């Protein structure tokens, strides 16, 4: 946002995202037209041949997996929320297992939905926003996520003066320069701009991004004490694990490595594979 840029001195890291513009397949070792290149010395990342917004956040998460262990900090693909008594619950596992959905709980404070650092002192969120899967999203089932996807709200005084200069699916109001929310791969009515969250004709992996402050009970700043409960979200699509189990450490490690998990990740990998073919 422009007002944030005013005090923005040297960036810690710079991402050059060229969207659809492909990488050069004739480059040595390049096997596809998509590449994510990282230079840790120059602190730069170059994204070519993909419009998936997740590349930026996951790219920087990869950087954190390199930097944080050097400082004795664990970077974890996890969500975290906190109860009224300060008890933190950490949910971890692969994509589509419910980290965002289950941590966004009206009765608990949201610390973050996807990427955290766990240090000797605390849990802290790496990001400033959330990234929710929105296939089948309804107001009844997931009201906080639904309400966080804003399309001109009372925070934005010029409801009727929306422009869609970037992409039709970026809900951005240039008059107030307020980032509202961004939807990827969703199907919507071009006239009413009403989104059909049940439509998976583009992909099962539809996503919504929104600032964490749009969740009413977000914990700002996004930090908390050591987790009291650690929950492995198997989301086992193979029907091997019971719905809820209390595991001791070796069992947790065994089931984590066994990888009975959600199908969404498999869809993502399959689509990726088919696109490349
Ligand atoms: N019981 C459940 N718990 C969590 N998510 C569920 C459940 N049933 C269906 N879902 C759906 O699974 C998806 C989980 O996505 P999300 O929470 O964004 O996962 P992650 O953050 O781990 O990638 C959402 O579309 C959610 O609506
Ligand atoms: C961003 C993704 O998943 P998650 O929400 O688990 O990070 C993804 O599937 O690309």
From TrEMBL:
GO annotations of cellular component type: cytosol
GO molecular function: ATP binding; phosphoenolpyruvate carboxykinase (ATP) activity
EC number: 4.1.1.49
Keywords: ATP-binding, Decarboxylase, Gluconeogenesis, Lyase, Nucleotide-binding
Enzyme class: lyase
UniProt-listed GO biological process terms: gluconeogenesis
PANTHER family: PHOSPHOENOLPYRUVATE CARBOXYKINASE (ATP), PHOSPHOENOLPYRUVATE CARBOXYKINASE ATP
Name of the protein described by the UniProt record: phosphoenolpyruvate carboxykinase (ATP)
């Amino acid at each position: 946002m422009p007002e944030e840029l005013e005090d923005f001195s040297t960036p810690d890291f710079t991402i050059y995202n060229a969207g659809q513009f492909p990488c050069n397949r004739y480059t040595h070792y390049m096997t596809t037209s998509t590449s994510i290149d990282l230079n840790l010395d120059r602190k730069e990342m170059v994204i070519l041949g993909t419009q998936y917004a997740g590349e930026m956040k996951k790219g920087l998460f990869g950087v954190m997996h390199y930097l944080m262990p050097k400082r004795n900090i664990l970077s974890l693909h996890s969500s975290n929320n906190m109860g009224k008594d300060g008890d933190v619950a950490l949910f971890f596992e692969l994509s589509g297992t419910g980290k965002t959905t289950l941590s966004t709980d009206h009765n608990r404070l949201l610390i973050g939905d996807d990427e955290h650092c766990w240090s000797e002192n605390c849990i802290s969120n790496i990001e400033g926003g959330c990234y929710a899967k929105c296939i089948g999203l309804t107001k009844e089932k997931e009201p906080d996520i639904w309400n966080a996807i804003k399309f001109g709200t009372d925070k934005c005084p010029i409801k009727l003066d929306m422009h869609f200069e970037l992409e039709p699916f970026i809900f951005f109001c240039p008059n107030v320069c307020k980032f509202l929310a961004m939807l990827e791969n969703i199907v919507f009515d071009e006239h009413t701009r009403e989104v059909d969250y049940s439509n998976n004709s583009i992909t099962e992996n539809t996503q919504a991004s929104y600032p964490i402050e749009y969740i009413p009970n977000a914990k700002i700043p996004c930090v908390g004490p050591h987790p009291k409960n650690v929950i492995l979200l198997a989301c086992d699509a193979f029907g091997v694990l019971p719905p809820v189990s209390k595991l001791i450490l070796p069992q947790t490690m065994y089931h984590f490595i066994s990888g009975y998990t959600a199908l969404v990740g498999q869809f993502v990998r399959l689509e990726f594979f088919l696109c490349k073919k």
